[in-house]
Amino acid sequence: MDQQALIERIVAEVMGKLRPAEANARRSVESRTETRFRLSENIITADLLAENAAGRSVVEVCSRAVVTPSARDWLKQNKVELSRGSSAKASSNNGKSEWLLVVQTAGEAVEAVLDDAGRSGAIGSHRETASDAASAAKVAVAAVERGGKCVVFSAEPEIVACLANRNEKVRAAVVADAATVDRVKSGFDGSAFVVDPTGQSFFELRNLLRRISK
Fold first, then answer.
1. What phi and psi values does residue 81 have, to the nearest 5 degrees?
2. Which residues of 73-88 are buried (b: 16+ CB within 10 A; e: fewer)?
3. Are 76 and 49 in contact (CB under 8 A)?
4. Which residue, among 130, 166, 125, has the nearest Cα to 148 in the 3D structure?
5. Tens-of-pLDDT digits for all 214 residues of the chain?
6. Quick one: which of 10, 57, 69, 128 could link to 35 by a disulfide (CB 3.0–4.6 Å)?
7. pTM, whole model, 2 decimals?
8. How far is CA 208 from CA 43, 86, 173, 201, in A?
9. What is the largest CA-CA distance in the chain?
């Protein structure tokens, strides 16, 4: 084999090894560009992120989206960057406010009604937990400030409502039954409804949610 043929053979072998490396590099760049993901919901929870943003490096939300405390913890733990984009609401909302269900006081009836609400789709697709009344009020205020509404389940309903109403944008009221909901809604446009689930059955809580979101 002459020198020219040897050089061509060596070049061919080197190029053969480089092509897979170039392809892998190209795929790596492409995968990085696909790690950006947009959520159009107005309320961003940890569950929503875990379901849609796992493995992403950047999550984009609208400028007025409510990012709950647990969602911020999820972003930090998973090293995902939050980016705020357009303030336009999701087209699926049809201009309606989104509802956030905040649970400070849990129980079998509450869990059952949350599952039922999530399946119905009318209310309950966004949930957040709170450790105390102050945290529940804080989440409620954040939701209202971003254009949403909320229902808080708390055994300390008066405290939650009082703390939330310190914000001038919030109209929080304690409701115990469907009749109370009707009176509140006829008097003013409530943005936060606080329910004490203690002693309430699944059917009573479900009826309350339905009347609130009606």
1. -85, 140
2. ebbeebebebeeeeee
3. no
4. 125
5. 566 666 666 666 655 554 555 555 444 444 444 577 788 787 888 888 988 888 888 888 877 778 888 888 999 999 998 887 654 444 344 445 678 899 999 999 999 998 888 777 667 668 888 999 999 999 999 989 888 899 999 999 999 999 999 999 999 999 999 889 988 888 777 899 999 999 999 999 999 998 998 8
6. 57
7. 0.63
8. 22, 34, 13, 11
9. 99
Show contacts of 205-209: CB within 8 Å, 24+ apart. 205/109, 205/110, 205/113, 206/113, 206/116, 206/117, 207/178, 208/175, 208/177, 208/178, 208/181, 209/113, 209/117, 209/123, 209/124, 209/151
Taking a C-beta distance cutoff of 8 angstroms, is the pair 125, 214 a contact? no
Domains and their CATH numbers in the chain = 36-85 (no CATH), 97-213 (3.40.1400.10)
Beta strands in the chain (DSSP E): 36-38, 43-44, 58-62, 66-67, 81-85, 99-103, 127-129, 149-153, 172-174, 192-195
